[in-house]
Design brief:
heterodimer; A: 249 residues; alpha+beta; Phosphorylase Kinase, domain 1; 3 domains; 9 helices; 20% strand; B: 206 residues; mainly alpha; Rna Polymerase Sigma Factor, Chain: A; Arc Repressor Mutant, subunit A; 2 domains; disordered N terminus
Amino acid sequence: MSACPDKEMLLHGLLDGELDAANTAAIEAHLKTCPGCAEAFRGLQSLSARLAAPGVAYRAPDALRTRIEAMAATPEPKPRRLRAAAPWALSGGFGALAATFALMLSLPSTTALEDQLIASHVRSTMEQHLVDVQTSDRHTVKPWFNGRVDFAPPVVDLADQGFPLVGGRLDYIDGKVVAAVVYRRNKHVVNLFIWKAQPGIASPAPARAHAGYAVVHWRENGLEFWAVSDVEARDLEAFHQAFAKLTQT
Amino acid sequence: MSSGRILPFGPSLAQAPEPLPPPGKAQRGEAEAAPLGPDDQQRFRSLVLPHMDAAYNFARYLSRDASLAEDLVQDAFLRAFKGFAGFRGGDPKAWLFAIVRSSHLTWARSRGAGLTAVPEDFEDVPAEGDTPEQALVRQGEVDTVRGAISALPEPFRETLVLRELEELSYREIAEVTGAPIGTVMSRLARARSMLLAALGPEETSS
């Protein structure tokens, strides 16, 4: 026994509370006289009840909740930047303090982008997201990007300089797919994000701390490079220098 | 049949058009939007954050992958936060869902067609508040239902989850998915009949 074909959508509409008063009255009257439709409607009600049972809908994992709540509670970036720079400035005396302020004043307003990069870095250090291709062999990582991004990201071996290669992955920054080449420094992860340079974007800046993460940006051969890590800023600057030395030839 | 709200649809609408882009500005525009003031941040926390479970549930059934769903939801909240200044009323939950959906589309395109996630096993996350014995029985039923939903083709799965689990109205589902209301209705009916066929009668009622 099944529902009348011309009444089927009305049964769904009734179940979902989407009918106006006239249609509701009409279909309810019909249900009293049509066993087929009545049975079909009971079937729909029973299905709805099974779908509404606890446990069918997923709940956000606690780690995700924590990350998103932290993001939404982020204070304005300026005071945070000042705090991040302050201990370094105090230990270095007045000259360093002045240099710090000069640095801060000359900073381009790219915090939205930097926040994205740091969020992506943090995400990558959660389990199973670090790399899509896992190998310390740069000759494997480099071709892996072929056809996945529309440029050839340079991949160099920096194991001798203390930054062994971990692998590569695709990431999504500022509305585009970018290459992320992943290195390690002891137990720390260094994410090197690479994409094609657009004219008029902020000029290179030395490594600096940003919300507890070190960020360094440079541009070379028409590509933008952003290295992000939780290592010390000077270590990340060393990474930048070692990387640039090998790619500048 | 008398005229009612339900009438404007027909079988010809079963082929849905490509979904529209989500409401609000494009990503680049969001990134360049002015930073939120403290009032807007407070509004974001009270209007959008409460829908985190719902957003994750939607992303999870869309992607059928636990870790990808986390990425999609985090990306969507980042975009929602940056684009919140462009949010002009309406239902914040539907607005957030449209962003989650767009994140998923972007991911799917970046990976190329044909590389969709393999449906996972449904073994995790016991329902809360059960004794271990109840949990065992219930988990069997929950796994069965989750598995049946996940096996639905995407447009039907998406429509069903938005209606049955998230309780969006037909109109809101049409807004989120960019499909006409008639298409939403026929997808929902089709999804329910596929689920009824897959699940059969409930074990406890036999």
